[in-house]
Design goal:
This protein is α/β, with parallel strands linked by helices. The protein has 17 helices and 12 strands. The N and C termini lie far apart (46 Å). The chain binds ligand FNR. Keywords: Heme, Iron, Metal-binding, Oxidoreductase.
Length: 392
Amino acid sequence: TDIPRLLSLCLSLHDIERTAEKLLSKPAWIYYSSAADGLGALENNTVDWRKVVLRPRLMRNVRRIDTSRTVLGRRLRYPFFIAPAARAGLANEDGEQCLARGAARRGIGYCVSSVASFPHNDISRAYYNELKQSGVNSNYGALWFQLYIVNEKTVTLERIEAAKKGGYKALVITIDSPVIGKREEDERYRAETSAESLSSSFSSAQEPPLSPPEDATNDEGDGPLPLRGVHSSTFRWDDLKWIREAWQNLGPIALKGVQTAEDAVLAVEHGIDAIYLSNHGGRQCDDTPSSIHTLLEIRRFYPWIVKERKVDIFLDGSIRRGADVVKALCLGATAVALGRPFMYSVSMGDDGVLKAIQLLSDEIETTMRLIGATSIDQLNPAMVNTKRLELE
Ligand code: FNR
């Protein structure tokens, strides 16, 4: 396939998604694109961005703009990072390394999943090598580690050690996954392929079923029903103590998957450095709020969390346009993240990742200029109208 040509035809992250659908194997496409149950959470994510309307301020000099932002003590060239998503190796043999190199080169953040297709050391080496070799300003960018808490405490502790050894600068603990959500498209594909492979006349022509997980603990996506149980379903606020002890204060800690104002407050009370509002791309609990909706809830019930900048606030879920990023920042997000678009971009290797970053950065710059903001700090709630979201 002529990747440069395909990429030249990608004018938006949606184009990257459509192209990836053609390039990816069927199980990979299904795994990346699927969501839980009746897809209500996924739909909330998509439609809610449209309900926030921008209020452009005009006749300001917007020739020069600064898009950089400090996030968990690190400067990012743009206010977004690559969300943790398992098994980038399904898209490309270099998998997470493509994402690591792209993030390093463009000075954005990358939060690597617990369930990566490569050892975490290799991914961080790819990141730090790229920083050195590409001659970019290494003051920009960040590499973080996403932690799933699994049943076997020793496995969780090993992961924390891997994060420390690999030079990961923050721990992002995912709290929305006491079990893995029910993703029917994955289950249907598995059922179909196993039904088909029972019938010998078809079996040789079938695609392989979802490959076994690269991570033997099999956190995400793969297993038939019983394996949904590898995640710890006993994980509670008190457990932050031993996690902190193991992490030895080597960097900030974020909680990923916060979906209510109540849990946001608890996170602040527990001394967490960042809350990451997310419904896991609609892949966990169905009919949960979009992250922008949760942010409005926090602003309404605990406005001090946002105003006093008690914690960094991240959010993700169906962010596909620079305008979405800008809306989130206007309402007080420190930075945002994208999952699927980057997984799709990996199907086109390093150049795909760089293109995805470039498309989104360009859109952010254009939107900032068009609404009259020359730095991220100038983005404020008066630049958006959220009435259509608040009414519901
Ligand atoms: C995820 N997500 C995820 N989150 C996490 O904390 N650990 C993980 O291993 C994964 N794995 C994963 C795999 C795939 C294929 C997807 C699509 C997502 C959730 C991810 O971090 C993020 O919350 C969502 O992807 C954000 O939504 P969008 O940007 O994909 O719409």
